[in-house]
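Input record, target 12 of the design panel.
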């Protein structure tokens, strides 16, 4: 398959998923309008670097088979700068002392147009691309024969892979002045671009500006926010425009007007920055850059523009409908979710592979990419875990009489980095436990999360509603969500210690989770060394990026002399593990010293230290660990019992890999995360960790009446 075929196949896949910006990606004819602020620098000279990057992107589009038409501004400004320079060169000192009269705009246009096209021709020629100049005036479009001939000429040029470059012929235009007269069929190059997009049946119009896109207020105002999708019904009355462009005649007001006219005539429009070196290619790849205008944008408002509070309230309402269903009904929903995942496995993997490729290209850490990837068989494994969860005993309503019953917490906010499989596990647990859910995944898994969310919510019946599970797509919404302690009941962050710590310090909502996964394996002098080697290797290399992977190996000092330590170190090195040491291990093994014992590598690296005995190991774990999962390998059961009783961690193991600390392996069906908290839930958090209690009292008219003559007795009742 050629690069062109692969590119087209990828774009069609993205378009099929109906991701908003991917609606742009498969269009054949692109019309690009370049503003004066992009073409020139602040001093009026040509911005050669920006123009060069722009021409390279257009060349790439041209090479991929796309037909590109340009509308360029900048001639008047460039002509004025050249005429000023010429006047300066030819003036005497006394002439320079006189008041300088501004140049006629039409003369500036005539001089500047020649220079502008010369630079385009030079830049495109270096890229082996041919360009053509077409100058038009407002009056031309009143002639139907002209419009027909214009279309034929442009189609001929495009068939020859030539780039037509349009500009208004200001030099002979009948307008009073290029910057003053706003009458006619078009009135500036923004409206000309919209007109040409309609006349030439373009599939996409891109307006390049000196700012990232359309903002809610002046871009210089820190309170202004970038509007990703313009929805006329929402934004028309809310936007406050700043000053018009420092050059040119329109500014953002003109661009928005042109964009609305084109979009509502059926041509999608993107306003984005021409300063960024690759924004056109990013649009091609379906990335969210700038502001999108589309005639169907109002249909997306309900899903994409919903605020954090509305999303949380909708999740709570759906949660209450879910709680009202029978256990069998909730089981049926989970089984349908499992079936939907398997039925859409190919589509999910395509999106996930795109996320992984983008992460690799962006140079993200290998540990993050490892967590991001949905490995072969992962979807089937997730579906099977959901089926196990569905067949578990109903967790809601089970208790005593006076009934102490279990009930859902309400609405959960889960913030997680990478790991799209976490979305599936968390969602299935929320459905089984009757909780509403807001999900915020990392941007590196945007496509994977979007398709998984769509597959799962489609499987939820209308009696509950897909809003049971909300997908938060903007990082800006997280600070606002963390303030909603009246509608969100629990926050569970899954990611780096920086993420967890930041969330804990930013909200009044209870937070469940762990900041670090610094897991230890202590190998005692009584250990079976063959077993120790297996446990240590599995704990480190089975999945180094996991939070339950071994980060520190503690070894009894007697194993230094018996050779046991060297065996363990040799095995780790053979498997490619990079070793760092504490003070004693550094001297004994000649390895670099660890900068701190409290460090989570999430990679093929670990810290090694030598300790006196199990008590020293326990002290080390308490001082430097994270209370996640710690393990002892020992044949001396008295030593093992001391370790198991005294290590204050969420999970403590004897002769077993730390990798077993997992909700699915513990029989919980799945997990929302691992908690190191000592309140509510600890360790892998499954269904029970997402429930609270409530009391139900059934009576027959009893009253307290000051407890007069009453003796309370209690006994357990069998339900």
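The sequence produced for target 12 reads:
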């Amino acid at each position: 398959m050629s690069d062109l075929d692969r590119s087209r196949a990828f774009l069609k896949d993205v378009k099929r998923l109906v991701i908003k910006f991917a609606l742009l990606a498969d269009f054949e004819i692109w019309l690009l309008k370049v503003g004066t602020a992009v073409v020139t620098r602040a001093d009026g000279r040509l911005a050669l670097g920006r123009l060069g990057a722009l021409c390279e992107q257009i060349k790439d589009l041209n090479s991929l088979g796309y037909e590109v038409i340009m509308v360029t501004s900048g001639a008047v400004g460039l002509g004025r700068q050249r005429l000023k320079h010429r006047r300066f060169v030819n003036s005497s000192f006394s002439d320079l002392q006189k008041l300088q009269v501004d140049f006629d705009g039409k003369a500036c246009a005539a001089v500047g147009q020649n220079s502008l096209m010369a630079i385009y021709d030079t830049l495109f020629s270096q890229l082996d691309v041919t360009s053509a100049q077409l100058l038009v005036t407002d009056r031309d479009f009143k002639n139907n024969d002209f419009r027909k001939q214009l279309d034929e000429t442009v189609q001929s040029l495009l068939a020859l892979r030539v780039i037509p470059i349009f500009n208004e012929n200001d030099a002979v235009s009948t307008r009073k002045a290029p910057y003053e007269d706003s009458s006619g069929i078009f009135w500036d190059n923004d409206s000309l671009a919209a007109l040409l997009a309609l006349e030439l049946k373009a599939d996409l119009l891109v307006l390049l500006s000196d700012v990232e896109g359309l903002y809610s207020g002046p871009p210089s105002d820190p309170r202004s926010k970038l509007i990703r999708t313009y929805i006329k019904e929402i934004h028309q009355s809310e936007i406050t425009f700043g000053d018009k462009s420092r050059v040119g005649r329109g500014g953002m007001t003109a661009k928005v007007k042109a964009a609305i006219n084109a979009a509502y005539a059926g041509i999608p429009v993107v306003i984005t920055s021409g300063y960024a070196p690759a924004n056109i290619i990013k649009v091609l790849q379906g990335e969210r850059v700038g502001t999108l205008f589309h005639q169907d944008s109002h249909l997306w408002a309900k899903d994409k523009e919903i605020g954090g509070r509305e999303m949380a309230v909708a999740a709570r309402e759906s949660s209450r409908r879910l709680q009202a269903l029978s256990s069998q009904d909730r089981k049926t929903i989970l089984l349908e979710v499992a079936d939907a995942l398997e039925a859409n496995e190919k589509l999910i993997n395509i999106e996930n592979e795109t996320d992984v490729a983008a992460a690799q290209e962006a140079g993200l850490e290998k540990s993050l990419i490892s967590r991001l990837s949905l490995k072969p068989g992962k979807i089937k494994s997730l579906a099977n875990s959901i089926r196990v969860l569905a067949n578990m005993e109903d967790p809601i309503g089970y208790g005593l009489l006076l009934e102490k019953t279990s009930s859902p917490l309400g609405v959960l906010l889960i913030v997680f980095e990478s790991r799209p499989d976490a979305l599936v596990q968390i969602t299935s647990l929320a459905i089984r436990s009757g909780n509403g859910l807001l999900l915020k995944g990392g941007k590196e898994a945007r496509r994977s999360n979007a398709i998984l969310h769509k597959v799962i919510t489609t499987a939820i019946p209308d009696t509950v509603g897909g809003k049971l599970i909300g997908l938060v797509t903007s990082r800006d919404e997280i600070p606002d969500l963390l303030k909603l302690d009246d509608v969100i009941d629990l926050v569970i962050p899954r990611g780096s210690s920086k993420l967890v710590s930041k969330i804990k310090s930013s909200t009044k909502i209870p937070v469940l989770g762990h900041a670090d996964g610094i897991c230890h394996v202590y190998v005692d002098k009584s250990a079976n060394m063959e077993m120790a080697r297996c446990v240590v290797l599995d704990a480190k290399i089975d999945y180094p990026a996991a939070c339950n992977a071994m980060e520190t190996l503690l070894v009894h000092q007697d194993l230094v002399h018996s050779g046991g330590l060297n065996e363990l170190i040799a095995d780790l090195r053979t498997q490619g593990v990079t070793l760092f040491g504490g003070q004693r291990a550094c001297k004994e093994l000649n390895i670099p010293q660890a900068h701190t014992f409290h460090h989570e590598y999430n990679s093929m690296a670990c810290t090694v230290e030598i300790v006196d005995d199990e008590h020293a190991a326990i002290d080390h774990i308490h001082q430097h660990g994270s209370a996640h999962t710690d393990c002892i390998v020992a044949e001396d059961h008295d030593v093992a019992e001391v370790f198991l009783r005294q290590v204050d961690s969420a999970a403590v193991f004897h002769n077993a890999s730390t990798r077993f600390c997992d909700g699915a392996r513990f029989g919980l069906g799945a997990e929302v995360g691992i908690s190191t908290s000592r309140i509510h839930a600890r360790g892998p958090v499954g269904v029970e960790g997402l429930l609270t209690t409530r009391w139900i009292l059934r009576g027959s008219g009893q009253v307290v009446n000051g407890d007069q003559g009453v003796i309370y007795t209690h006994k357990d009742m069998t339900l």
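Confidence is low (pLDDT under 50) at residues 1-26, 178-182, 244-249.
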